[in-house]
Write a structure and sequence with these properties.
By secondary structure, this protein is an alpha/beta fold. Helices cover about 35% and strands about 15% of the residues. The protein is built from 10 helices and 13 strands. About 45% of the residues are buried.
């Protein structure tokens, strides 16, 4: 097709590149997309098994009302603070459109690369603020004022979190602009800023059930913000992408949230696996940042990350190789179950001794 038929905006886009989802049976250990290594809560399976298949012929509730009620109780926030979408990435897209389109927005120079993709798609004026050499966040005074701010807490791919005082001060010093905090990994470390949305009218917190709840395949995400900001998100959604979360995903999400004790037990296992994985990596020459996520950000003292990535893949293990200017020496490795982590270490030892 001739490029004359395409929008001028298309030439400026750089689509987000997700981690591999291999179909090949040769991949036996998948540690590249931060999925949970443990199954969802048993109630999720029961809910799906008992789901009334005949109801699929009807459209799902357009605003995911029962799910919003469940999330409202779970987080102790008003129901009108909840917006539900098909995964947190869709919620992020609506947020960029609602709050930053045509305006200035900044985010860390090392972070989730989808932020840049959304900024370009929605024609934002955008820029980075630089993380320190150790990938921690800069002093608040060093972040540009009078602009929208987006960041993940804990940050990806660095796995480092900021405290709630930092978020509160950032929102207060930037009170005329939106501060958006992406909490995809908050259940694995750090403290959630959800309760701050009751007092900070410019704060938006985005969450997902993909990571800690083991529901990545069902695509359920949501945001928590003031009723006014949540209304703006609904307006955007219903103006160009009115498709709600499907009925089965809504029902399964409710079951998972209502069985958070099970999810919490899985989180505890992952934290124990993370601790051992970091110790084992350190023992074979890796330097790993202090993780507050379900992945580790690590580099070897002698071997290049690209080499390690390729050698692991030959052995049926995939991790994430990052090619950014400041991350080129690092691998991001999902914390798997104990068996997967042990297999990873064994193969890394084989590669190092090769």
């Amino acid at each position: 097709m001739s490029l004359n038929y395409l929008s001028n905006r298309l030439t400026e886009l750089e689509p987000y590149v997700p981690g591999e989802q291999p179909l090949s049976s040769e991949i036996v250990v998948k540690l590249n997309t931060n999925e949970n290594p443990y199954p969802p809560a048993p109630d999720v399976f029961e809910t799906i098994k008992k789901f009334n298949v005949n109801s699929i012929r009807f459209y799902p509730h357009p605003e995911s009302e029962l799910l919003k009620q469940t999330l409202s109780r779970f987080h102790d926030v008003p129901e009108e603070f909840i917006f539900v979408g098909n995964g947190s990435d869709e919620v992020l897209a609506h947020a960029f459109c609602a709050f930053f389109s045509g305006k200035k927005v900044v985010f860390p120079d090392v972070t989730y690369s989808f932020y840049q993709s959304f900024a370009k798609l929605f024609q934002c004026q955008w820029d980075y603020f630089e993380l320190r050499d150790d990938f921690t966040f800069p002093n608040i005074e060093e972040i540009e004022h009078n602009t929208g701010i987006v960041f993940a807490n804990p940050n990806a791919p660095t796995s480092i979190a900021v405290d709630l005082d930092y978020i509160e001060k950032l929102a207060n010093q930037n009170s005329d602009n939106i501060v958006l905090v992406d909490e995809a990994y908050i259940d694995f470390g750090g403290k959630s800023a959800v309760h701050l949305t009751k007092s900070l009218k410019n704060l938006v917190v985005i969450r997902t059930l993909s990571k800690s709840h083991s529901l990545a395949g069902l695509r359920v995400g949501y945001s928590i913000a003031s009723a006014e900001l949540t209304g703006a998100l609904s307006m955007v959604k219903n103006s160009f992408n009115s498709y709600p979360v499907n009925s089965i995903s809504q029902a399964a999400a409710i079951a998972s949230i209502n069985n958070f004790d099970y999810t919490r037990s899985n989180i505890s296992k992952i934290l124990l696996n993370r601790k051992k994985l970091i110790e084992d990596l350190e023992a074979i020459g890796f330097s790993t940042l202090a993780s507050q996520t379900n992945f580790v950000f690590t580099k070897h003292e002698k071997l290049a990350s690209t080499y390690l990535y390729e050698e692991l893949k030959k052995r049926g293990i995939i991790v994430r190789n990052l090619n950014g200017v400041r991350t080129t020496h690092f691998l991001r490795i999902t914390v798997g179950n104990a068996q997967d982590c042990n297999r990873l270490i064994i193969e890394l030892i084989n590669i190092i001794n090769k």
